[in-house]
Specification:
The chain is of the alpha+beta class. It is built from six helices and 15 strands. It has a single domain (2-273), classed as Endonuclease/exonuclease/phosphatase (Deoxyribonuclease I, Chain A, 4-Layer Sandwich), CATH 3.60.10.10. It starts with a strand and ends with a strand.
Length: 276
Amino acid sequence: MKLITWNIDSLNAMLTSDSDRALMSREVMVSIVEEDPDIIAVQETKLPRTGPSKKHIAILKDMFPNYKCVWNVSQEPARKSYAGTMFFYKNHLNPTATFPKIGAPDPLDSEGRIITLEFDTFFVTQVYTPNAGSNLVRLKERQEWDEKFAEYLVGLDEKKPVIVTGDFNVAHKEIDLAHPGRNKRSAGFTDEEREAFTKLLDKGFTDTFRYIHGDATGRYSWWNQRAKTSKINNSGWRIDYWLVSDRLADKVQKSDMLDSGERQDHTPLVLDIDLA
């Protein structure tokens, strides 16, 4: 099975805007579809509270003719058109989709951050993890989220193996970002966030990129779009992941980044796994 994940930073803009950035996003999405994955996970859709509009749906059907889709969007008290997640999966697949709330602090549970697909013998779930924010104003809430999400994944794993993906908003180790020394108290690289990710892995999950590539350096999934040369200089962070239950690790055949060209911000990640 081939799966691809991408924090798109506004599916809404990709579908409706003609800005240079939206056009680049469309090119990346076309390249994802050309990979012919079985499942596509998308984070930070920024769709309205009513979900995709009729215009959105028409464009999506044209772009993804061989896929069904499900989505989770922000609801009150969360901000409008904020966060959000979406799954596309091949028409022949028939998973059961759920949109769990994990008991996280308000309004995090209302921001459309998780979707889970249940198949006969495994789960696929995606997450858009909250950012700790400028000056770490949301670090406490982020820590609570990490604890609750880890509990949720353990609960799934007790039933059947789990494939987990998304933007986790944390660079786990110093080799997961270009400049660890000057980011010690930056959101996404605090000791608290890194320790929470370690604890998650220790509960029975494998970071598939590290499983395949060991301690490879200079491999990132995000470059700050506010810094014009971040991608040219490869001043990036690896904050997007494919994780699997430990008992699935030896079935992973590929876990890597996909090329997103000149577009900064997140790049897609691909996972090939033998679930036969």
